[in-house]
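job 3f2a | input accepted
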Amino acid sequence: MARISIRRDKCSELASLVKRLNIELDPFIDPRYYPPPDADPSCVAQYFFFMVAIDHRTGTPSMPFEGYVDGEFYHGADLLYRLGMLKYEEDPGFFSARYMSRITAEEVSSWLSVKEPRHVRVRDPEIRAMLLRDAAHRLLAQYLGNPLSIFKGDLRDWLRALGSFLAYSDPVAKKSFLLIKFLERRHLISMIPAMELHVPVDNHLTRIALRLGIVMPDKEMWHIILSGREVPDEVDVMIRLVVRKAYFLVCEEAGIRPTYLDDLLWSLGRTCCTRERPVCVLGCNRVKCSTKRILGSCNGTCPFINACDAFREHKALKIVEHTKLNTWYY
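job 3f2a | predicted structure (330 res):
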């Protein structure tokens, strides 16, 4: 059976670098993507609950979800939340459970689309509409339509409650930890002890973990990962659970809240340690960069370059994450 294991020595090496960083946290109040700080808390919670529910694989390799909105270019999750905020500004009630309980695939397709430079719609609007309806029906039946009512008890209670929604049913709880991060940062739920948290593991965080070498697949698992073939759910979950644990060990040793480190990791995966263009190999060509904002300065290089096995072994372009496109987990 193919396996993947944690390299604790590499986790310690990465933790030592993390300790030296001054990470500037995102307060999630940028008006392009999120409701304003003085917005009604229940409306803000509904916005995040339903947006995170559909925050997964927005495009395909041949048709990325990107385009212009009011003259500014957006890609992937940025475009998703930009279009979310346009709808919120038009009518916050759009994100109520009652409205979402009857949303159609056609509405999702029309809402989450752009026309410039070409007409592009979000991937799988039918699945997203189904997830939104399921989330809305369960929210109405169990919590009177109020997402904040989910967050009673301790973290285990939160995760158990969120896991009953199809959109949040990922065994690795990527969307659940992302929602907790948003709501916590917006002061809508209480902060729980740091070491009870995990990073929300997606393809970006998995790729970084593999390149850094904090996790090590055996020969059979490497073959599965590098084959480019779609992996079964159980393989995807196994890989991401090990990656999640590795980052937990890094955070524990570095003394950093996992949701704080996630700000940097997610930005690195989208801008610096990308699948096709890692900056350690091809250099940085970005004028705007969220990683530079998070770190204050980056000098056009990856902050983890001195701990990266892929860079040391000249394999950064060869090492990529496993292929899992057909999922709503992340």
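job 3f2a | The chain has a mean pLDDT of 96.
job 3f2a | closed
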